[in-house]
Design goal:
The protein is an alpha+beta fold.
Amino acid sequence: MSKTLSNKSNLQVLYEDNHIIVVNKRPGDIVQGDKTGDKPLSDIVKEYIAEKYNKPGAVYLGVVHRLDRPTSGIVIFARTSKALPRLNKLFAEKEAQKTYWAVVKQQPPKESDTLIHWLKRNPKQNKSYANKNEVLDSKKAILDYKLIKRLDNYYLLEIDLQTGRHHQIRAQLSSIGSMIKGDLKYGADRSNKDGSIHLHARRLTFTHPVKKEPLTITAPPPTDPIWDACV
C-alpha cells in the first residue's frame, strides 16, 4: 500500500471556495486519522489552506464522508461550520449523487443492472458480506451499474449508488463474480503492486450548501496503463 501524501504539492484540488474544498484522493491515503498514525488527507488539506490563504491560527476543516484507503477519487471537505451540517444533511438524505468507476476482470452477467443485497458487516475482518435475503443486523444495499468500456483483459463499469454501505460496491460486485481489480479482500486473484484497487469515485453531483447552486465535479483516475485506457 502506498503511503499517505508526503506534502501539499501532491494535493489535487478539484474545486474550492470559501465554504468547501473538493480533492482527488490518491489510493493509499486515509481521509481521517486512524490507528495507523499515518498522516491523513484532512491534515494535508489544512496545511494547503493555511499556506494558500496565509492563515496564522488553526484551520477549520470538517470531514463530510470517507473513501476506503485503497480507493481513489472525490472527497469533499467543509471549510466553514455553516457548510458542514448542511453537507452532512445532504449526504444523509441521499441528495448527493455519487458515481464510481470500477475495473473488473470478469464481465458481469448483464451489461447493466440494479443490484439489491443485504450487507452484513464483520468488524473484526473489516469486511461486508452480501446476502440475497435479509439477515440479522444486515442493511439493504442498492446500486446501479452499466458496462461502459471493454479493455483487452478487463471491463470498465460505471456505478451509481442508491445507498451508502460499508464496502458496498466491493461486496456487491464480488457477489456477482465481478471482483474489482486488485481487491484481494473481495476475491481478486492478485493484488495491485501499490496496494490500490481499481475503484474510483469518479463524479459527484450536489447542490452547493451555501450558494444553493448545482455542482458536478469529475475526478480523473490515477495514472496507470489500465486507468489510462479507460479515459
